Amino acid sequence: MHLPRRIWIQLTIFLSVAMISVSVMAFGYIHLPRLLFGVGTYTVTVQLPDAAGLYERANVTYRGTEVGQVKKVVLNNGEVDAVLSLKSGIDIPSDLDAQVHSQSAVGEQFIALLPRNGTSRPLKNGDVIPRDRSTVPPDINDLLNATNRGLEAIPGDNLKTVIDESYTAIGGLGPDISRFVQGSTALAIDAKNNLNDLTNLVDNAGPLLDTQTDTSDSVHAWASHLAQITRQLKVNDPAVRGVLKNGAPALKEATALIDRLKPTLPIILANLVAVGQVAVTYQNDIEQLLVLLPEGTQEIQGVGLANRNTKQAYKGAYLSFNLNLNIPPPCTTGFLPAQQQRAASLEDYPDAPRGDLYCRVPQDSPFNVRGARNTPCETRPGKRAPTVAMCESDENYVPLNDGYSWKGDPNATLSGQPIPQMAPATPGSAASPPSAPALPPIAVAEYDPATGSYTGPDGKVYTQSDLARNAPKEKSWQSMLLPPGAG
């Protein structure tokens, strides 16, 4: 049969396309050389406890990626061996687990290779994955049988009641259940995104739980104390109810009180701050006062009740009032000179003298032992000084006089310290009160005890008969205390 040239060309093109398509299908899709001759693959055997529905040509995955197929599933002395055909060129660690999973609900099984250690040597041809490294899913038939037996154990009437009540419970809750499912899905997605953190949390939860175990005694003690508190609350239930009932009105009253105190409360608190600063400074003195106050009170009570409930004629305190005049004599050193002193009968209030007036004798002198010169310094323990400025400085107290030797002027100084003087009056000052009339200076002179004669400041000789020894009127300490002219 003679065919035209055009037909031969068409047949040639068709055969070429057909051969190319068959080659692509055989080598590219079917992988015929690999299937028939094992080109580009190697075999690994997995020992399984049972077949678990695994079949020939099932997929094999590594980290979710297909890396081969199940070549065959055979029995080996009552055990199941699955021979895997894996692709060459993909390094799969040999330290791994082989798990059989279902890919779909119809039972499409596959083997997932899960590495334990990424640094182990790669699998090679002929390796065997032992049974203790392989797992299979539970038999679906056993699961269905157990479910069926569980359903058969439930009486039909009760099951109907459960279904009806369940419908009543969740009827109309479709949107809520939908939100619950969506929230659960979102939670699962977030958990997957934070899988490493969740795994770390689970791994590190052990030490935390161990601490709870180690402190079990403390937990039991805390629970016991909590139970005791609960019992006390139960016993005092009326009081607790009263507190809860009256707490709101009391709080309202307290709030109203604070509102009323708002104008003055800041001032009071500011003053209390100043008082607190002083109290902190004199903390030691306050503590000593609190220590001695009970003892002093006890002694006063003992003195006041000395002969209580007794038959003594005189009842009262056991005190002896001895009048010791000029023992020791008064301290005049450090005060104004006699010429500048004011009479005690004057009632005006002139400006204070310049300088500090206090007894300026040595600190160990018997004169005025409780004077300012012996005041303890609060901020400098062990130091005593008459003024705060001297306490805070490095200056030490220096006396004006030795305390015994009379040196004429009572303010005579051994150290060069300034002698206190009266403040100068301000001329024309309307605010200052009228000054007292000037008093004549007080003169000091020696007199003759026999005649009572003495020489005055003007150089004349005067006689005061009542100073003589043979004065007609007897002198006593009572008459010496009376002002001149009083009889």
What does the model show?
With 487 residues, the chain is an alpha/beta fold. It has helices spanning 5-29, 32-37, 140-153, 156-170, 174-193, 195-214, 216-235, 237-261, 265-281, 283-304, 388-392, 477-481; strands at residues 41-48, 59-62, 65-76, 79-87, 96-102, 109-115, 128-129, 134-135, 453-455, 461-463. It has an eight-stranded mixed beta sheet with strand order 7-1-4-3-2-6-5-8, with no helix packed on it. The chain has a two-stranded antiparallel sheet with strand order 9-10. The protein is elongated.
**How much helical structure, as a percent, in the residues?**
25-40%
- What is the oligomer described by this structure? single chain
Biggest β-sheet description: 8 strands, mixed
Quick check: average pLDDT?
79
The number of helical elements comes to 12
* N- to C-terminal distance: 187 Å
Give the strand line-up of the largest sheet: 7-1-4-3-2-6-5-8
Instruction: List SSEs in N-to-C order.
Output: HHEEEEEEEEHHHHHHHHHEEH
Shape, principal axes of CA atoms: elongated
Rg, nearest Å: 58 Å
Number of strands: 10
Outline the fold blueprint.
Elements lengths: L4 H25 L2 H6 L3 E8 L10 E4 L2 E12 L2 E9 L8 E7 L6 E7 L12 E2 L4 E2 L4 H14 L2 H15 L3 H20 L1 H20 L1 H20 L1 H25 L3 H17 L1 H22 L83 H5 L60 E3 L5 E3 L13 H5 L6
Parallel strand pairs: 1-7, 2-6, 5-8
Antiparallel strand pairs: 1-4, 2-3, 3-4, 5-6, 9-10
